[in-house]
TrEMBL record:
Residue ranges of domain Alliinase EGF-like in the record: 56-80
Start and end residues of each Alliinase C-terminal domain: 107-463
Protein name stated in the entry: Alliinase C-terminal domain-containing protein
Statement: the UniProt record of this protein carries the keyword Kinase: no
GO molecular function: carbon-sulfur lyase activity; transaminase activity
Cofactor: pyridoxal 5'-phosphate
Top-rank taxon, per record: Eukaryota
Region described as Disordered: 466-489
Native source organism of the sequence: Oryza brachyantha
Transmembrane segments: 12-38
Lineage: Eukaryota, Viridiplantae, Streptophyta, Embryophyta, Tracheophyta
Keywords in alphabetical order: Membrane, Pyridoxal phosphate, Transmembrane, Transmembrane helix
Family the UniProt entry places it in: Belongs to the alliinase family.
Pfam families per the UniProt record, alphabetical: Alliinase_C, EGF_alliinase
A Gene Ontology biological process term: amino acid metabolic process
Length: 496
């Protein structure tokens, strides 16, 4: 009996132990379960960034991009400019205690194309590009090329739709801004440097875009050199010379905005069509030269993206000599490879997006060319109204012309005012305008002489309208009674 009682007692305590073990295991599980599911703040996961319809990093990037864009100083120094406007007139005490009017001049020197900024603000969503850190790391595209095939296709389509260039029989070459292509094309068109062949003579007609000279001088190759203006060679110099000429032709011209053609017979011409778009000139016919240069800077305003392209004529190369043409092509490619190893793929992606927006709105109610034309024509009208009251300065004369793109006769809408000082004492027109509070770009920089100076009409509305000719060009003495507080930026050193 004792044994039986003892046996049932030990069975009961074993059952109790099992029970306790089971309960504590359940309790532990419950605690782990509660800890896992009921903790105060769940860990952040990409999906929890907001109601972005499944977007994670792109949504975060978009938020950051909008925050940066909301600050007025982003991009091009808007805050600085507004502050400057308040500072423009301020009273200072002279040595004798009298109040002097001290002022800062307006900088209308550069061709910075900010006049299109309001257009892109209107198309903020459509023109935005977002890509992450792992994207586009490679030097080359998936096709093994440096250039985006899709971008080339869009460039061709745009030229055809606008009617400003014949592209079907042309190669399209990209550059880091058209500035890079200026030298790349000179290099490609020059004879290879050897003792037997003299260097090619690089020339342009006055007044010319100063970068042609400064770039040629700077690279100072054995194959080519700057040889002055076409006037010296035009009569029979080029025909009788054994030299190879490379002539830069800008059409419409920077600075005087005239449409131009090559002057020298038998030269290789590089025709720079930076401004050959309907908002800046009428387009009488599609351009069809052998070598043509274009830039996004003056087309869409994206100067900071540094994107330009050249189109060169395949058919013409074949006609002259196949071997030679191959050489020209090789040298242009070699220049690009050795200097930059292609154009930034980020830039190419951005330009593709910009061209898509332009194409989508072409001839519609939000056409970039109609927008740009309205801005530029109103600036030109205002300027002409002011200058017509003056005998002191004159502007280039431009007649209204029929523009096939707009299918109507258009008033002029040039990128620059080419100002001439008419009064005898105003030998330095740059200084005369500086006296009226405007920094311009002296005609000395393009061999036109100091009687001329260029005023840019491409900048922002507040710069051009506030400036709206504060200085009276008719007054015989400059308006200021003191020197500007800061020396103005030396415009001559800037290729703009
Ligand atoms: C006639 C001309 N060509 C080329 C350029 C340079 O353009 P990018 O910004 O593409 O270097 C300019 C700039 O003002 C220009 O006026």
């Amino acid at each position: 009996m004792e044994t039986g009682r003892h046996g049932s007692q030990s069975l009961g305590s074993a059952w109790l132990g099992l029970h306790v073990l089971l309960c504590s295991s359940l309790l532990l599980n419950a605690i782990f379960f509660a800890h896992h599911f009921l903790r105060a703040s769940p860990p952040p996961t990409p999906e929890r960034l907001g109601d972005g319809g499944g977007l994670s990093w792109a949504l975060q990037a978009a938020r950051e991009a909008e925050a940066v864009a909301a600050a007025d100083c982003s991009g091009h120094g808007g805050v600085y400019r507004i502050a400057l406007r308040h500072l423009t007139h301020r009273h200072m005490r002279g040595p004798d205690g009298s109040v002097l009017l001290q002022w800062f001049p307006f900088n209308l020197c550069s061709g910075n194309p900010l006049f299109l900024e309001p257009y892109w603000r209107r198309h903020a969503a459509a023109s935005a590009v977002v890509f992450s850190g792992w994207h586009r790391l490679s030097y080359i595209t998936t096709d093994g090329a440096f250039h985006s095939v899709e971008l080339v296709r869009h460039i061709r389509r745009l030229h055809t739709a606008v009617g400003n260039a014949v592209v079907d029989d042309k190669h399209v070459v990209f550059g880091v801004g058209s500035t890079q292509l200026i030298n790349a094309l000179v290099y490609a068109l020059s004879p290879e440097g050897n003792a037997a062949s003299p260097p090619a003579s690089v020339v342009a007609t006055v007044p010319y875009y100063p970068a042609y000279k400064s770039q040629t001088d700077m690279f100072d190759g054995r194959e080519y050199r700057w040889d002055g203006t076409t006037a010296a060679w035009a009569k029979n110099g080029s025909r009788n010379s054994t030299r190879d000429f490379i002539e830069f032709v800008t059409s419409p011209n920077n600075p005087d905005t005239t449409l131009r053609e090559p002057v020298l017979a038998g030269s290789s011409a590089i025709v720079d069509h930076a401004y050959y778009w309907p908002h800046l000139t009428h387009i009488p016919a599609p351009a069809d030269e052998d070598v043509m240069l274009f830039t996004a800077s003056k087309l869409s305003g994206h100067a900071g993206s540094r994107f330009g392209h050249a189109a060169s004529n395949k058919a013409c190369h074949c006609k002259w000599a196949l071997v030679r043409d191959e050489n020209v092509a090789k040298r242009a490619i070699s220049y690009s490879r050795q200097s930059t190893y292609g154009v930034s793929r980020d830039t190419q992606l951005r330009m593709l997006k910009i061209l898509k927006v332009i194409m989508a709105n072409l001839q519609g109610k939000d056409d970039i060319f109609a927008f740009g034309y309205d801005v530029m024509v109103s600036r030109w009208r205002t300027l002409n109204a002011v200058v017509s009251r003056s005998t002191r300065i004159t502007l280039q004369k431009i007649r209204p012309q029929y523009c096939p793109y707009f299918k109507k006769t258009k008033e002029p809408s040039p990128a620059y005012a080419w100002v001439k000082c008419e009064w005898e004492q105003d030998v330095d027109c740059y200084q005369t305008l500086l006296g009226a509070g405007i920094i311009s770009r002296s005609g000395i920089s393009n061999d036109a002489g100091s009687r001329y100076t260029r005023v840019s009409l491409l900048k922002t509305q507040d710069e051009t309208s506030t400036c709206s000719w504060r200085g009276s060009p008719n007054s015989s003495t400059p308006r200021s009674t003191a020197e500007p507080l800061q020396a103005p930026a030396p415009c001559e050193t800037v290729n703009c």
